[in-house]
Amino acid sequence: MPDSLPELSARVVAGLGAAGFRLTLAESLTGGLIASSLVDVPGASRVLVAGVVAYDDAAKAQILGVGGGVLDQFGAVSEQTAQAMAGGARGLVTIAGVADSKLVAVSTTGVAGPDMQEGKPVGQVHIAVATDATITVRSFRFDGDRASIRLQAAVAALELLLEEIAA
Fold first, then answer.
1. What are the sequence ranges of the domains in the chain?
2. Which of 23, 29, 34, 130 has the most CB atoms within 10 Å of its CB?
3. Are 99 and 50 in contact (CB under 8 A)?
4. Number of Cβ atoms within 10 Å of the Cβ of 16
């Protein structure tokens, strides 16, 4: 049986701490759910640096630096936007002087419903994890209502993060 979000969040905080990683987040679809789940874990302040909820495309562009070309060509719900959001989140922390080779960023974008967005179906989700060396993007198609899709995306994002810091 998969971990619940609280159990997974505790594993992530422990794993980041053990590996010496710091984390920044760029959440769209999950709307801060990942950050909230992590700050519920004692010791999260040692690993969580910052989080941005960039729900609107203008916020993705202005705050995270997602280029208009990416949004125009691929849309907000795309692997390319997830990648750009993660890179942008990492860059924001670099600007703040916190970044180092152990900084990792996670981003989420997708369609929680109830309606399609940009011609993309409900449940389409893209998650990216960016380190100083790589950006890994995975795409998913989740079923369920809005809350269920957001929860599944948060769990998938934390599982991908654990995979990446273990690699």
1. 5-166
2. 34
3. no
4. 23
d(CA 166, CA 158): 12
Give the pairing of strands 48-53 and 124-130: unpaired
Size of the chain, expressed as the number of residues it contains = 167
d(CA 13, CA 48) in angstroms, rounded, equals 8
List C-alpha distances in Å: 158 to 7, 47, 105, 118: 11, 14, 11, 26
Tell me which of 3.40.190.290, 3.90.950.20, 3.20.190.10, 3.40.30.10 is the CATH number of domain 5-166: 3.90.950.20
d(CA 105, CA 125): 17
Contacts of 107 (CB under 8 A, 6+ apart): 25, 26, 27, 28, 82, 83, 85, 86, 89, 127, 128, 130
